[in-house]
């Protein structure tokens, strides 16, 4: 093992410098405010969870988990997502079966990365979970809140792609016969490997009709007309029920007035294996990955002893900031430079201005080597030096 450099960080970890931190705080605050106005309450969970509970319940691959041992020999993990920890809390302490829970969070999650991947191993998510509501109305609310939150954050150009895990699973099992074969084909979808998908389908021992059904499936993208095209590929059963849910969802999104932001993409699947129904991804300019995603996960709480429907979404703050591009100007800061004999006066002036909402730095002038740099750095500089008045 090579010796680490003094300033080297663990693989995938990043520093957040003041300008970016301030921009992130501003975006986070605007989204948190919107979520609260929609009736969601914020919650915090520990950064460390037991591997046997949250670690195994999470849909994150085992090789991406950060693991360590506590003093009792139990295996712990740094939380790889927030949905599983909130499901644990809801099942054990909050859920009473009568009223759906509306919980929100803003927290860092941790996923180990390969050296060649170049992706962060620690990043912040802000999101919501609606637990105890099995209706399509709840799915529509999640999508509408995601749109509203992004707009409040200042994002203008973005699109949501909406699919249904139940439709994909049912179609593939109908044609391929087994869950195992269906999962093998599904893998090409969440890798976005459509060339590999087509080659795999052509190599399968299927009738020409079934092969064409699987190839036509890749074209199920667009507006509400997609539902009609999809119904021609699926037989009766859960697949048709899934399409009925998508049809109702479109009507709900229209009622919210946000249908222009939505397109159906029935090829969407997720590496998050706990999704069971409607799911969606958010895309914006300048970012090659989804800046947010969400969906329905009706089976997850069963791992914690509760059986109920749930849906939610998460926004990646780092990707959202990247898509916003220009972070804007930081808030102006006043610097009060003072000499020792006017220190008390400087303290009182700073207190008065801070109470008025101004951002103020107090600085002993004897420790400043370059006064011109102060003028370049701060929006306003006040000198309290010697017997001179305030400038």
Describe the structure.
There is one protein chain. The chain is of the alpha/beta class and 391 residues long. It folds into 2 domains: 18-324, BirA Bifunctional Protein, domain 2, CATH 3.30.930.10; 333-384, 3-Layer(aba) Sandwich (Rossmann fold). 39% of the residues lie in helices and 21% in strands. It is built from 13 helices and 15 strands. Helix 1 (18-37) packs antiparallel against helix 4. The longest helix is centred in the N-terminal third of the chain and has 20 residues, at 18-37. The model has no long low-confidence stretch (mean pLDDT 89).
What is the element layout, followed by pairings?
Blueprint: H1 18-37, E1 41-42, E2 48-50, H2 51-57, E3 67-69, E4 75-78, H3 83-94, E5 101-110, E6 122-131, H4 136-152, E7 158-164, H5 165-176, H6 179-190, H7 194-203, H8 208-217, E8 221-222, H9 225-231, H10 238-256, E9 262-265, E10 278-284, E11 292-296, E12 310-316, H11 317-324, E13 333-338, H12 343-355, E14 359-364, H13 371-377, E15 380-384
Parallel strand pairs: 1-5, 7-9, 13-14, 13-15
Antiparallel strand pairs: 2-4, 3-4, 5-6, 6-12, 7-10, 8-9, 10-11, 11-12
Helix pairs in contact: 1-4, 4-10, 5-6, 5-10
């Amino acid at each position: 093992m090579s010796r680490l450099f003094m300033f080297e960080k663990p693989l995938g970890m990043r520093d957040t410098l003041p300008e970016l931190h301030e921009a992130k705080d501003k975006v986070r605050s605007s989204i948190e405010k919107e979520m609260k106005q929609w009736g969601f309450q914020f919650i915090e969970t520990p950064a460390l969870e037991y591997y046997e509970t949250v670690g195994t319940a999470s849909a994150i691959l085992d090789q991406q988990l950060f693991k360590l041992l506590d003093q009792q020999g139990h295996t712990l993990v740094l939380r790889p997502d927030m949905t599983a920890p909130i499901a644990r809390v809801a099942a054990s302490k909050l859920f009473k079966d009568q009223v759906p829970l509306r919980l929100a969070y803003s927290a860092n999650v941790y996923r180990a990365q390969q050296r060649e991947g170049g992706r962060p191993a620690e990043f912040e998510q802000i999101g919501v979970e609606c637990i105890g509501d099995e209706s399509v109305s709840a799915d529509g609310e999640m999508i509408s809140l995601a749109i509203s939150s992004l707009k409040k954050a200042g994002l203008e150009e973005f699109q949501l792609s909406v699919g249904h895990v139940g439709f994909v699973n049912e179609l593939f099992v109908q044609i391929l016969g087994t869950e195992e074969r269906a999962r093998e084909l599904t893998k090409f979808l969440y890798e976005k490997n459509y060339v590999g998908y087509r080659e795999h389908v052509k190599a399968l021992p299927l009738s020409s009709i079934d092969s064409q059904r699987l190839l036509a499936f890749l074209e199920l993208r667009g507006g509400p007309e997609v539902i009609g095209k999809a119904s021609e590929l699926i037989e009766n059963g859960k697949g048709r029920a899934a399409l009925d849910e998508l049809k109702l969802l479109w009507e709900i999104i229209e009622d919210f007035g946000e249908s222009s932001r939505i397109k159906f993409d029935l090829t969407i699947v997720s590496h998050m294996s706990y999704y069971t129904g409607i799911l969606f991804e958010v895309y914006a300019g300048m970012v090659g990955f989804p800046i947010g995603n969400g969906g329905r996960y009706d089976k997850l709480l069963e791992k914690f002893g509760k059986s109920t429907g749930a849906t939610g979404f998460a926004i990646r703050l780092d990707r959202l900031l990247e898509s916003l591009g220009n972070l804007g100007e930081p808030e102006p800061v006043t610097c009060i430079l003072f000499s020792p004999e006017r220190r008390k006066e400087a303290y009182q002036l700073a207190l008065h201005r801070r109470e008025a909402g101004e951002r103020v730095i107090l600085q002993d002038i004897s420790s400043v080597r370059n006064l011109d740099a102060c003028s370049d750095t701060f929006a306003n500089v006040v000198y309290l030096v010697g017997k001179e008045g305030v400038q």
